[in-house]
Amino acid sequence: MHEEVFRALDNGATVITASRRLARALTREFHGIETARGNRVWNRPDILPFEAFLDRAWRDWLWRGANADAPVLLNAAQEQALWQRIIGESPEGASLLQIPETARQAAQTWQLLAAYRLAVDGSFEASQDTAAFAAWSREFRELCRASGWLERAQLADFLRQRITSGELYVAGFDEMTPQQAAVLDALGEWRAIDTGDHSAAVERRRMRDSSEEIRNAAAWARRLLESDPKTQIGVIVPDLTRSRNSLERIFRQALGEAVHLSVGPPLGDYPVVRAALLMLEFALGALPLSRVGMLLRSPFLAGAEAEWNQRALLDAKLRRKSLWDINIPMLREAAGSCPQLQRLLWCVEKKLPTRDIAGLLVAFGWPGDRSLSSGEFQTIEAWRGLLSDLASLDLTTPPMSLPRIIDWLHQTAADARFQVEDEGAPVQVMGMLEAAGLRFDHLWIMGLHDEALPAAANPNPFIPSALQRQHNLPHCSAARELEFATTLMDRLLQSAPDVVLSYPEREGDRALAPSPLAAGGSWLHVDEQHTDEWIASMRSSGAFEEIADETAPALAQSGSPGGSSLFKDMAACPFRAFAKHRLGAKPMEDPDLGLSYRDRGTTVHKALEFIWRALGSQAKLMEVSPQTLEALIARGADEAVAKLGPGIGRDLEKRRLQKLLREWLEIEKSRSEFTVIGIEAERMATISGVEVKIRADRVDELAGGRQIILDYKTGQLRSKGWDGERPDEPQLPLYCVTNERPVAGAAFAVIRTGELRFRGLSDADATLPGMAKMHIDPPLPFEAQLDEWRSVLQQLAANYRSGLAEVDPKPGACDNCGLRGLCRIREFEHDRG
Question: Residues 510-524: what's their mean pLDDT?
């Protein structure tokens, strides 16, 4: 900050800036100078952006005297609602798909016309779009005049003759609109602060793609901070909104809290706001159980700290009931284990007849009981500002129903981008316009390819093209974009003594060239430099001892909860077996609308159990008449579906089940003679000191006394499910090797739409009709295969008994595991890679 400007501010001068960011930066610089001089107390400098200056001038004018006839200044939400109403009621409104977006564009056009002091005249009849806007703008102007409203676009002109100022400086304006210039001229003499005074040393870098470009910029900033923690670093991104997520992820990984992005996500994406919107949706009516579960696990619901475990268990309990939609009375009735939750739901129900949004959130106890972080507090203040805008809509909008209010909040929160305030982070990531007037020690400008700078012309669709070019409006032509981009680059190159320019060579399948505005030197190709180089540097600088903690305490007793699934889980991933069978961890169930795959599998098992308990043998199956068999199938289907309880799709499932059973029993008729001697019969089995409970779906005895063990399969089945040391489907091998009687074969009875067949292995004299063999490499005689299975199962059991709990999933094992949040496999794979 120049000494002259500092003294002027100390004496009460005003500095008007082009952006809020520049105002904050100059304010911090002023405070830093006062602190360096040893001062402990000083007046806050009068530094504020142009729009804030107008707001203060408006308030001062209202407070200075009696202004009984003063107009009502509309806020942005009121203006948006007014434009939306006008456009929706116009002849064109019936054919528009996105009226809110059209209203937003119309409001911006109105502000642009006011900024450049252009009138809506006969030239607007040149096209259908401009003529429509002309009609909307006339109605907007008449409504404001008749109602005594002052639109924001006219505030500067209204105040021009009503405000005064003392010594005045301006900073960061690459160009001024005629309206801004008129206001400043009306204030008297003013001077511009020259903030760009560096002669930069420029380095040009060519990167493979935008991801590599971001990683290199983050690693560069990290190295600079390591050498000088007080250095000020700027990173300029032309299209910051589009690439924001990648930028934040990579820069946070490299720099932690030492970085600040100027563009935040939509307000509705912040957890505390998302929770508020979810509570309001729940107040409207039933929600899918998955969304109710999100609410139960939310820390922003009152009582979350005290009832954290009970609410998680309540969520799991509701999922086991296979409920789909649940409303507030249903949840309150089910929440016997959560008394605080029950009480707040009572309060919410009493509040429901009102349209009091804030009152409903208070009833829910939002934003919860725990202390809020600074970021959460700022986000809540932004949300309350949104509620204030909602309350102000009564001026320009007819009363809205509660569903319409919540829709408005959802839409507005999704459109409003919010970023917590910059608390002086040394690395600033921002767009090109936001860097106006700022100074840095080091600056990186990325994305400087020929398609980004200068930007393509984007004329306003509601203003005649000729009028835009005549008055040189923003984005009106390629020449205008080139002129503005040249000004921007010239200013940015004076913002720091050390400047890096970069561009990506490719974006997707498109080859890119450097922007002509970044010409003037050679472009160096830089090899990729990962942002985690600093992690490797930290690790190499110290002595670390790595301990692989992959073994749990050995199993103290032979018994183990569960059954054959222990071996399936152990083969899939040792940690999964440890988590499920020793820690008791279970994945959350996802409710299905209607019947789940598990439900449909259960009905097949239950129906066949009923049928074979009635028949008992293949001979009996052959003896019964078609009518008797059909009645038996119908009763079996009824019994099976009835066990599921009430719900959607039960009658349809009965018809599907009867058709499948009818077709399957025809296959059973073609078999050699057998007797069913075991149906869902439980027994205990011990392998390598591990005792488990097993239950075969069915055991058939053949004429010679040997047995075939069957397992019903209603889902997909891999033909290699019995192969290798970690088989996908070890249940049937387990039943076979622990069976007390001689076993002649084992097979899956695949019973599903599109496939009805046996898949398995057996002796040559016990082959089932049409049976497809399970693939085992190398193939062995059935007796030898039993020995091989016994060896595989003994090893799995021994590993489990010894406490092996390594996170070692075989391919595909993680797809339907549900425990990835517990084993943290993603972090493990990242570290290992």
Answer: 86
Mean pLDDT, rounded, for 438-450: 93
Dist. CA 539–CA 719, nearest whole Å: 46
Name the residue among 298, 399, 406, 396 with its Cα closest to residue 357.
406
Consecutive H or E run containing 149: strand 149-150
Beta-carbon contacts of 779 under 8 Å, excluding residues fewer than 6 positions away, are none
User: pLDDT per residue over 705-741, tens digit each?
Assistant: 899 999 999 988 888 999 999 999 999 999 999 998 9
What span, in angstroms and rounded, lies between the C-alpha atoms of 70 and 150? 9
Alpha-carbon span 782 to 794, nearest angstrom? 18
Which of helix, strand or coil describes residue 443? Answer: strand
Tell me if 721 sits within 8 A of 728, measured CB to CB: yes
Single-letter residue type at 318: L
Q: Residue 288: is the preceding peptide bond cis (ω within 30°)?
A: no
Q: Locate 252 and state its tokens.
A: 């946070």
Tell me the sheet residues that pair with 259.
427
CA 150 to chain centre: 40
Rounded to two decimals, what is the model's pTM? 0.79
pLDDT digits (tens, 9 = 90+) for 291-321: 999 999 999 999 999 999 999 999 988 887 7
Give the pLDDT score at 833.
46
Query: Does 539 score more than 60 pLDDT?
Result: no
The Cα-based distances of 369 to 271, 299, 304, 365, 366 in angstroms read 15, 8, 7, 8, 8
**What residues pair up with 228 in beta bridges, in sequence order?**
none
Please give the DSSP secondary-structure letter assigned to residue 824. T
829, pLDDT greater than 80: no
Distance (Å, whole) CA 406 – CA 352? 13
Sheet holding 190-193, edge to edge: 46-49, 14-17, 168-171, 190-193
pLDDT for 530 beyond 60? no
Peptide bond just before 591 cis, omega within 30 deg: no
Give me 707's structure tokens. 């047995």
- Tokens representing 158 are 């209204």
If we measure between CA atoms, which residue out of 562, 548, 610, 507 comes closest to residue 239?
507
Count of C-beta atoms within a 10 Å radius of residue 557: 8
Query: What does the alpha-carbon distance between residue 698 and residue 720 come to, in Å, rounded to a whole number?
Result: 22
Q: What is the mean pLDDT of residues 669-694?
A: 91
How far, in Å, CA of 676 to CA of 655, rounded?
A: 26
Specify whether the CB–CB gap between 222 and 252 falls below 8 A: no
- pLDDT at res. 657: 93
- Note the pLDDT of residue 542: 64
Strands, DSSP E only, in 283-333?
287-288, 325-326
Phi, psi of 14 (to 5 degrees): -115, 135
Binning the chain into helix, strand and coil, the percentages to the nearest 5 are 50, 15, 35
Phi, psi of 245 (to 5 degrees): -60, -45
Specify the 3-state DSSP secondary structure of 525: strand
Is residue 565 packed enough to be buried (19+ CB in 10 Å), middle (13-18) or exposed (0-12)? middle
The single-letter code of the amino acid at 21 is R
SS3 letters for 373-440?
Answer: CHHHHHHHHHHHHHHHHHHHHHHCCCCCCHHHHHHHHHHHHHHCECCCCCCCCCEEEECCHHHCCCCC
pLDDT at residue 382, rounded to an integer: 95
Which three-class secondary structure state does DSSP give residue 695? strand
Pairing of strands 201-207, 524-525: parallel
- For residues 207 and 216, is the Cβ–Cβ distance under 8 A? yes
Partners of 693 in the β-ladder: 684
- Residue given tokens 């399969």 in the structure block: 713
Written as one letter, the residue type at 409 is L
Q: Is the dihedral of CA 372, 378, 380, 384 positive or negative?
A: positive
CB 427 within 8 A of CB 221: yes
Looking at residues 613-636, what average pLDDT do you find?
94
Asked if residue 395 lies in contact with residue 143, where contact means CB atoms within 8 angstroms, the answer is: no
